[in-house]
Design goal:
Layout lengths: L3 H17 L8 H25 L2 H5 L15 H13 L5 H10 L1 H6 L10 H9 L3 H18 L9 H6 L11 E13 L8 E9 L2 E18 L6 E7 L5 H16 L3 E6 L6 H10 L2 E6 L6 H10 L8 E5 L4 E10 L2 E12 L2 E11 L8 H10 L2 H11 L14 H22 L2
Parallel strand pairs: 1-5, 5-6
Antiparallel strand pairs: 1-3, 2-3, 3-4, 6-10, 7-8, 8-9, 9-10
Amino acid sequence: MLAPSALGHATRIAIKTAARGVSATEGPRSSRRAEGRRLRADVRHFLDWSRRRYDFFEALETVPDGRDPGRTRIPLPAVLLAVLLMFWLDLGSIRELDDRLRANPGLRRVLALVGGDTISDDTFADALDRLGLEVVKDHMRDFAKRELKRWGAGRYRQSELARRLAPVGCPGLAARALVAIDGHELFWSEHRTCPDCSVRTVKKKRNGKEVEVEEHFHRIVVAHWVGSHPAIILDFEPQRPGEGEQTAAYRLVERLARVYGKAIGILVADALFDGEPFRRAAQQAGYNTVIRQKDQRKWRGPRQALDKRDPGRIAPDRHYHEAATKRRYECWEEPDDGRRYIEARRTTPTRDGQQVHQGACVTDLTAQQAPAVAVAMLMETRWWIENTAFHELAGPWSMDRAFVHAGRPTAVQTIVTLALMAFNAFQAYLYR
């Protein structure tokens, strides 16, 4: 199976090129026309599928519009759908979208814009800052809930995670969603800011000299369903100025329990979340945890026990050779106050020899629920949030760009929410 980035890139080129109204290939005019017709059909197929899977067109009509009705010419649903199209078509700015609308009557018809109507920067910024933000977020979560529901009735066995866990005897760990929690920064600027910005001083070079400048930016904590396709973003929580990433994560986990409930089974997180408050929040939500461990000062008891019985880490408690990937796993584990401290070493053959990765994690999954090798696999699946979510969203999806920012905190969150809605819909389309 192609990776999401490879498959998504090919389809996005088709949709983007078709929306531009030109062919993606060189050759005789008849061939270019045929290719252009095929690509335009791809766009229509995607939009028709979107209407059937989750009617974004109808959903966006329920978002409250806080603008002055007497001065509003372009309907709010048209503005919101334009943002979705902006991400689906990989446009770099609202001005580029505006130019595309002027040149393409077909796109104006999709947005239900008539005549020469287009969406200016001012219309765009004003509409996104004055709408009912929580309703937009609810639609993002509702789409994700529907995708999780489709995952039931044994379909989880088709997932990459379940197929890898089956040989070690626990494919059922994938029956409920494995969710990675991590933070992400976006909308950096030295000049534009809003009340929700965090601020830091960084050193940069100006005219060959190193100077200190203030950088304004936003942080969010994201919950990403990993180990399966489609890889859906379930929710995000803004990190307020002056607070830590963990504080935002507690709010996020509490809402995950309220919105998704038992559809989620396990949370995986980086070493930043290796602390009792996060574990307690997950436990209260009814979720197990697998958390990366990096701090040598923590979990001294289990570490010392391992150092005593196997100081050179040459006699692992568990061996496993994964036939499909040719990876070799070696694991050591020690119990500690109802949890398990696990160290793992993974050796992967490469063209030049072999690549070795080592790490440690802590979990409240019992040995009956998940042997040490399964826990190691769960932990490494956390990287999907980097490779499939953040890498894609910051790169091809351009979510990190400050499309609108100065003085408009609601608009910033609206842009992020719509970017995630567009990303989720496209993931579901690719792996339909």
